[in-house]
Design brief:
Two copies of one chain form a homodimer. Helix content of chain A is about 40%, strand content about 15%. By secondary structure, chain A is of the alpha/beta class. Chain A binds a DNA duplex through α2 and α4.
DNA sequence: CTGTTAGCGCTTTCAT
DNA sequence: ATGAAAGCGCTAACAG
């Protein structure tokens, strides 16, 4: 029932009583083989439990048929939604998606880029965190295309799918101002993450247009945990020192802020403090006070990223220029910020 | 600056003016090479942008140094937490973790098992969904070890990390009964998922011990979406027909149920209906009504899974027997079910 | 340290 | 259809 530990194409050929090349043909060009021998070969494959060694196949081909997706944070539903979209679309093209989690750490990002490069993936989807653009350009010259996800290319030779984060930040804070907020706090960080600094930029534009103060409560991560600590920072202040509106760089933070706010009996959301998050994850509408948020088309972004990648998977000669797709964010108003109407 | 598309070890040797074997030594046994030539080789590697071709390395070695983790659902924070733990521990052993998402679909699970087998990963972490045990045993004979995650091995020759789901279901429903519930509904499905049927089993044991009715509202998935539809199924009934306690097979479902419940002004949680979820994800304490849940030690489970895998990565002769690690779940009581102090 | 070599498993080509 | 053979890039072993 079970042959040697490593069953090779040669073993299969022997078992089936055919030539080695014929087995390869059955695997790769079945139409070149008569029905009868094809059946014999398949039977032998089944008996021996043969599985094609991808390393050898790749070595020959020079590339695998997977793409890698290095996510900033697997625990952020936004990214897993993007991943979901990527998988759906990749399947359409016969590609598999391997996921990795850089967890906001440049070293881990670098490690996974290495790993995927060594594996000679067809391409990479990546939300860059560290300073990796030179790295990626070299990769590209060596035949591994990168598509930037949730981040614009800014003149660099990559396709990208992103959302206008400046517009998103602007939307969020404009909305808070409309609801009557005058002392707004931005919760988020680190600013080395472009998405965060862009959202802050948009926020401060909206703030300065209306002459509203914008305080920045810098956090070292975009997690529920960080949100909690930002929240308790605020609640520990005397009432008069607290902001009346809080804009969080993502929903995880907002959830954390909400957790710490709702531990204070006498703090009313949105009455005392209005709250806006970012990403509109599934949970946003299920929080203590349903969360106003900025929606990004996450699944569509994943699909688009793969399409852009496949577009670049053509021979250099006929390869189109990299493209940038920018989606517009959308304000989703819920109770956490709704003061009128 | 950039050489041929594929820079090989041979190009490096040429550039550095050393022998091919020396480059290999620099890469794999640096101590066998003098400092000076090592530096020359490293310089050449840098200049040419050489990256070791893992396919070739693997082909030679017969195995990669990654492990694959096939998750039931990337969008469930429980699994990403497990993944996080696995990554942490794998890094300790110099292994990389590649994540894949079977999304509850047996075909996708099979596809990824194939993929990882073709890639000759060192081992697999897997929460089985389809009927894959024969497959996995064959894999094991061919040198790819599997550790079952969130699922016991039940006599099969695999190590496993799981949580006692029957105990968890029992805990949940016993708690509801203690809070005075007498008509309990179980929301979850499909029952083909062992975790779900075990939780139901525990639930019904608790129910029958106290002579409490247990209604099963079967869903086809463990998602927020499915939870919403179960919730509206309940709220559409006349008050007298509604359960007074709901136990959801996971927190995503519970979040969905909560969403639909809280759309009804006059429905009081936990007064009219008490609610218990499962997994105790980060969001559980941030929901409209903070969610009572059954906690599983997710990160620890991931770490343990990798340890069990590494344990099995020894030559067959000295390999220890597979082990089963079973953690006990823990009831975390919050407002969604707390009726008496 | 060098230079050479075999071989991992597969694909592809070629003449038969 | 076959059988033979080259070669993908690497590792590891060898004699010098």
């Amino acid at each position: 029932m079970s042959g040697p530990a490593q069953v090779s194409i040669r073993d299969v050929a022997e078992q089936a009583g055919v030539a080695l090349g014929t087995v390869s043909n059955v695997l790769n060009r079945p139409e070149k083989v008569t029905e009868a021998t094809r059946a014999r070969v398949l039977a032998a494959i089944g008996q021996l439990g043969f599985v094609r060694n991808d390393a050898a196949r790749q070595l020959k081909a020079g590339t695998s048929n997977s793409i890698g997706f290095i996510m900033l944070d697997v625990r952020n539903p936004f990214f897993t939604d993007v991943g979901r979209g990527a998988e759906l679309q990749a399947a359409q093209h016969g590609l598999a998606v391997l996921l990795a989690n850089s967890d906001d750490q440049p070293e881990r990002e670098a490690t996974y880029i290495d790993l995927f490069e060594q594996q000679r993936v067809q391409g990479l989807l990546l939300s860059p965190i560290g300073n990796v653009f030179e790295r990626l350009e070299r990769l590209q010259q060596h035949g591994i295309v990168t598509v930037l996800v949730d981040r614009g290319a800014e003149g660099r030779p990559f396709s990208s799918v992103s959302v206008d984060d400046v517009a998103g930040g602007y939307l969020a804070v404009s909305h808070l101002i409309e609801q009557g907020c005058r002392r707004i706090a931005f919760v988020g960080g680190p600013l080395s993450i472009k998405q965060v600094s862009d959202r802050l930029l948009g926020a401060s534009r909206a703030g300065s247009q209306h002459d509203v103060s914008l305080e920045v409560l810098l956090q070292d991560g975009l997690t529920v945990q960080a949100g909690r600590s930002a929240g308790s920072l605020i609640t520990r202040r005397p009432r008069s020192d607290r902001p009346d509106g809080v804009f969080c760089a993502n929903d995880l933070l907002a959830v954390g802020v909400l957790q710490s706010f709702t531990m204070l009996e006498r703090l009313n959301i949105p009455g005392d403090i209005a709250l806006v998050g970012y990403d509109d994850i599934d949970f946003a509408s299920a929080t203590v006070v349903p969360l106003t948020s900025i929606r990004q088309p996450s699944v569509l972004m994943g699909r688009t990223a793969v399409d852009l990648l496949v577009e670049q998977l053509t021979p250099v000669a006929i390869r189109p220029e990299p493209r940038e797709v920018v989606f517009q964010p959308e304000l989703v108003i819920r109770d956490s910020s709704r003061r009128r109407s």
